[in-house]
Automatic annotation (TrEMBL):
GO MF, one example: DNA binding
Organism: Limosilactobacillus reuteri (Lactobacillus reuteri)
Name of the featured protein: XRE family transcriptional regulator
HTH cro/C1-type domain boundaries: 8-63
Superkingdom of the organism of origin: Bacteria
One Pfam short name: HTH_3
Claim: DNA-binding is one of the keywords in the record: yes
InterPro entries in the record: Cro/C1-type_HTH, Lambda_DNA-bd_dom_sf
Keyword check for DNA-binding: yes
Keywords: DNA-binding
Length: 115
């Protein structure tokens, strides 16, 4: 497989998304077209590469294997669980697992209900 197809698969799996979800998100009618890109059978045109980059919030250079994700990009692309897992303390006080659960619930509620 190509670097492009590996990165597509890795990004999708990191997000916990299905191939069907990604395909619909970039305007494809068929999940199989997207799957062929992940399997390295075919490659999309530049317009579609740009759409994919936007969906995954990465650069086209990253998708095409020209550069690695920066630490800032890695943090930006982290899931809620991953981000909360990195919080160890607040104002010098340890953050407990219960605190992290409450923060996760609050954040998810906010994101679901925002306009």
């Amino acid at each position: 497989m190509s670097e492009f197809s590996n990165r597509l698969t890795d990004l999708r799996e990191e997000k916990g998304w299905s191939k069907t979800y990604v395909a619909k998100s970039i305007g494809l009618k068929s999940m199989q077209t997207y799957a062929n890109w992940e399997y390295g059978r075919t490659e999309p045109d530049f317009e579609m590469i740009s759409k994919i980059a936007n969906v995954f919030n990465v650069s086209t250079d990253y998708l095409l294997g020209r550069k690695e994700l920066s630490k800032a990009d890695q943090v930006h692309n982290a899931t809620v669980d991953e981000a909360l897992g990195t919080i160890m303390s607040f104002e010098g006080q340890p953050v407990t697992e219960h605190d992290k659960k409450v923060m996760k619930d609050l954040l998810e509620s906010y994101l679901r209900n925002k306009e």
